[in-house]
Amino acid sequence: xxxxxxxxxxxxxxxxxxxxxxxxxxxxxxxxxxxxxxxxxxxxxxxxxxxxxxxxxxxxxxxxxxxxxxxxxxxxxxxxxxxxxxxxxxxxxxxxxxxxxxxxxxxxxxxxxxxxxxxxxxxxxxxxxxxxxxxxxxxxxxxxxxxxxxxxxxxxxxxxxxxxxxxxxxxxxxxxxxxxxxxxxxxxxxxxxxxxxxxxxxxxxxxxxxxxxxxxxxxxxxxxxxxxxxxxxxxxxxxxxxxxxxxxxxxxxxxxxxxxxxxxxxxxxxxxxxxxxxxxxxxxxxxxxxxxxxxxxxxxxxxxxxxxxxxxxxxxxxxxx
Length: 321
Prior knowledge:
Elements: H1 71-92, E1 94-98, E2 113-117, E3 132-136, H2 152-159, E4 170-177, E5 182-185, E6 192-193, E7 196-197, E8 219-222, E9 227-231, E10 253-254, E11 258-267, E12 273-274, H3 287-319
Antiparallel strand pairs: 1-2, 2-11, 3-4, 3-11, 4-9, 5-6, 5-8, 6-7, 9-10, 11-12
């Protein structure tokens, strides 16, 4: 369809046209398609009659028109490109994860789908205090939990990142402490980082920031460099760093186990929202600031001791006179 036969005859091949001798010029007998009007028609665009047409075509007529590729032939190519792009996005940019439990209520609900930023870790970014992060199971935290059994389609879609991962053993919690921090819980709280109390409005209503139990709810830990301390927002319903202190990392999560930061609730539509760092983490929680708050009293005491000794020596000298 759309092809042009070059040099086709309008009459029967090898026969004369009635009323015309063999070899006579018969414009109607020449079926070759040219780029302009027929020669000798009086409107040849300035060319003299009998000259061959110009414009790139050969003397035999116009070049055949290209046949358009069928949509059904292009469809597999388009699907292949889309799959490659989806796989690259999942690997290097963003991945969807499903929330399997209530440990992060009310910030996240069971069944929510979150999008996790996987790009910034490639540039050396590490989890920061207050961020909600997804991380691989550090040391059997999910032992005994039911394992999902996805069908083939779900497995394929999760592999390319179009559905949340259902086979990887991942968890989602909030970062409370980073390397060098001292995190402490006394009584029902508040939770402190380097001696500074946190105001935690994201904690599940009815929960206390700290849990009064002998399983790990009361603690004082120092986070080693290269690790993070994580806790769920549903404090009395979260098996987090507090309750995994018997593992090989003493409840800490190695930074290299972090997949990325959860930045958006993408599904269901009615729960679309971002996941910003709470304001309480804007205060200066560094170990340096904690040291400075202790330094002035220490310096005052150190300066007062020589003065007291000097005054005692002076008083003693006056009495002996």
